[in-house]
Amino acid sequence: MTYIVKPKLHHPTLPANKLGYTRRDYEGKISTLCAGCGHDSISAAIIQACWELDIEPHRVAKLSGIGCSSKTPDYFLGNSHGFNSVHGRMPSVLTGANLANRELIYLGVSGDGDSASIGIGQFAHVMRRGVNMLYIVENNGVYGLTKGQFSATADFGSQSKRGVLNSDQPVDLVALALQLGATFVARSFSGDKAQLVPLIKAAITHPGAAFIDVISPCVAFNNHAGSTKSYEYVRGHNEPVNRIDFDYWPRREEITVDYPEGEVVAVTQHDGSVIRLRKLHSDYDPHNRISAMNYIQEHHAKGEVVTGLLYVDPQPEDLHRHLNTYEAPFNAMDAKDLCPGSAALEKINAALR
Ligand SMILES: Cc1ncc(C[n+]2csc(CCOP(=O)(O)OP(=O)(O)O)c2C)c(N)n1
Ligand code: SF4
Ligand SMILES: [Mg+2]
Which of 145, 221, 243, 283 sits at 20 to 30 Å (Cα–Cα) from 14? Predict the structure, then answer.
């Protein structure tokens, strides 16, 4: 019943952002997911983040693969561009769209099956190429849509709803993203909106490949005792390394908030925006890729789920810079620029002979 459109009526006192839009203007259709599914909380966090960032909805392109998670772009940003691709193939479609028009904000939404199983190759390449995007994996450790088989992110020894123990080692997408060169890497929990909303805002403003792995319990197939992706398990084992206190600050605005020295890390990105991180673990350094990888592995071995902004490179490079592409989007170029003619083609062919 995805055709059900939400009524536009809203309370007259609902606050509006700088563009005059209320949160309702960033919603999509009525969700058809199971009540209590973590994915719906992530949609709500995306709506909140885009509303708070005063993003014009037509400037966002949402892309996804196949799965309950990949259905969610239908439930937020109903006035944005959207493309529901083939299972595991969202990253290449997103890369192509980004190359054709760098002016849009690219939001890739995927599942652990979509990204860590069938789409793991595509996931790897979109990260190592540094495509400017926010890539969110709604990670429940199962294939929810096809009724609860273990996915590649299910932990070794975790138990399925029918009592089967997983005998395979898990793929840790955060570790992979770090190893492959993503320049903003975070992990969060769908049940922690206070952490997730600022992370999404910071990741959207990050001018490079940003990845957030969001543990998102599947209430239908993976929320029982013995699961390491259940609400209870994640609440009991969550180890936040930091909190984004004041989230995104454009540099031109004066920062007047007082904070105790030594507890806050300010990360200035090369577009001038500043991300302020409140450290919860004094030994955690979000600028060091190698120590971030060690830290995550050490804590994973102890059964802890480390969350927060795990790594950020304030000076990221993106695919366009690597390829030295033309700035104007294809749809703003005329036929002469898009097709330089047969003489130019002949010249290129001759140079390759
Ligand atoms: C090529 C292909 N193979 C298999 C499927 C069947 N299939 C649909 S969704 C899915 C797994 C989805 O799992 P995940 O990405 O974790 O999303 P979730 O439903 O858990 O949110 C599979 C195997 C498919 N649609 N296409
Ligand atoms: S099956 Fe699981 S992942 Fe799919 S909507 Fe239901 S709770 Fe969510
Ligand atoms: Mg899944």
Answer: 243
